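The following block was generated as part of the benchmark described in Methods. Ligand: zinc ion.
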Amino acid sequence: MFTERLDRVRSSMATLGVDAVLLSVGSDLPWLIGYEAMALERLTMLVVPADGPATLVIPAFEVPRVVERPDLFRIDGWGETDDPIDRVVAALGASGRLAIGDHTWSRFLVELQRAVPSATWTTAGEVVGALREVKDEAEIAALQRAASGVDRIAGALQRGEIPLIGRTEADVSAELSRRILAEGHARVNFAIVASGSNAASPHHHAGDKVIGPNEVVLCDFGGTTQEADGTPGYCSDITRCVYTGSPPAEFAEAYGHLQEAQSLAVAAATVGTAAGAVDKVARDRLALADLDQWFLHRLGHGIGVEAHEEPYLVEGNDEPLAAGNAFSIEPGFYIADRWGARIEDIVVATDSGPRALNTASHDLAIVEA
Ligand code: ZN
Ligand code: ZN
Ligand code: ZN
């Protein structure tokens, strides 16, 4: 798998005229060689020259953490008094056009720009990110496993098996987090619990508020799995809303429109459709009920080894969806001081149509506990 990915990176470098790719912290590196750099002040950087072997420049004492793959890259461990920038420059060979990982600390980029003044720079997103956007069968299967895990949690929430009334949002968030880990994820990326008027804030931070009866409770949660060999896996991300009692007609009606907007957008996410056009389908449907003014964010984001990545389903993105793109479809409405709602599924564009990986019910579940 890694060999094939490295080959694809090299051929894309040739097409784009990139002489070397430099990857540090972030998701490109684990996607490419199965190793995740620690976000520390000591530089870890994989150097992939267009011709010549790849080199992982890494603090010497972290070498034991690396699963060695000598067919893919050699390891250059640097000591505490060595200059890692020198090591990177040595591994580069000829400079030219260099693509550096999007999440690399700017400090290292600035030092590299000083060390190789003749180089021109672009982002690794242009090279590696573009490849990561198209998932193969194994990646889709991994995303499906992650999605099924959080689907089971959503089901428990909808059946009232996760008590809500009388608990703080933070407490429920902690339970969702424990369940995410129990469902085979290696880490929790977020577990938003927003009740009542807090649901009007799309990224509400679960806090001390005690969940009461007759409130909407918006839960948006997900994590990252781990492959059997310990390499970082794929992300899950789901949003479901429940109501602690019987919802007022006005809310139930708005929620019904949201439900329709969400399923219309899923159906519209076909191969060849511009990402921005899918966003518009949801927005136009919400506009019929005058709810589009409260739909405050883009429709969705790509997902893979990173929770948010390309392609973004947002107005102005004219890129057509490709088979193998995986992304969220998550319209919502957020009415300040009142309430809010969102429904989110992960969807894969396939040649036989959009395939939703999440299958938990979209209905507004009424829970009385
Ligand atoms: Zn979000
Ligand atoms: Zn989400
Ligand atoms: Zn999302």
